[in-house]
Design brief:
By secondary structure, the chain is α/β, with parallel strands linked by helices. It has eleven helices and twelve strands. A twelve-stranded mixed beta sheet has the order 7-8-9-6-5-4-3-2-1-10-11-12.
Length: 332
Amino acid sequence: MLCDKLGRELRDLRISVTDRCNFRCFFCMPPDREITFLKREDLLTYEEIREVVDMLTKLGVKKIRLTGGEPLVRTHIENLIKMISSMKQIKDIALTTNGYLLSKKIGDLKSAGLMRITISLPTLREDKFASIVGKNLSLREVLEGIKSAKEVGFKSVKINTTVVRNVNDDEILDLAEFCRKHDLILRFIEYMDVGTLNSWQREKVVSAEEILEKLRQKYKLEEIEREHKSETALKFRYTDTGQEIGIIASVTKPFCRNCNRLRLSAEGKLYPCLFSNKGLDIKSLIRNSVGRDYILQIVKSFWEEREDRYSEIREIISSKNTHRVEMFRVGG
């Protein structure tokens, strides 16, 4: 059992397979900001990602989540899923996507071994969708992606909605009803100060308590315990249907003390936190043919020295930590 300075075990690995995205959402990759994307040769190959995963299973990793940017813009992502799903130490493979390309790829993803899927849905309103995602794209494609995930038989289809004041906070009940109707697990997410580009202001955060207050105007909810202490969401169920709903309250109810996630960025660096400002360049170690045992020892020491808990001490260090890694390079 490998633990960091706060006694947190290493169990989950989130892998950003690309920093590119077909959206330009204002809370992640604002369209008015100039961004230099990685060149193809700067990305880890699928074989290199598999090598990293294989090494990290020796240190305790059992769960994988593939993210981006948008992971489905990376060619043949199903090949990587197949590589990882063949590893007996990995017990869970999930993917987070904006859903726009999902209906065309969902069959291949499931056949390759994908077990769970999370789809971002910022709004149910076509007239609002383009302004949020920063491009003249249709919400219909995302809704088709959600439908296709249900049709191919995924038992767990989660919907993520980042709630921003005066943007989509008026849709909390509409989104809840949509997910109830279609048997989807909804996760509301407090607007976070990830990266350095999204001009985050605390006044734009709609707190977990506000979200719950709105939901309870229409539904009766009861809180349910997390199955694992490392889970990020506060979990509830509707008393009439038993369906689950959750809130990820990173700003107002931090869960840093139980965080067991390590992150692999698109450029091949390991980060101990979504809000990190420095990473371990594992890509260079692999490409320079450094021995596996040596790399494992470096990563082991990297985790053992980990003491990140940004969300717990945000007010103290946010003004000092101005060079945080961007979310589209390390995965949300």
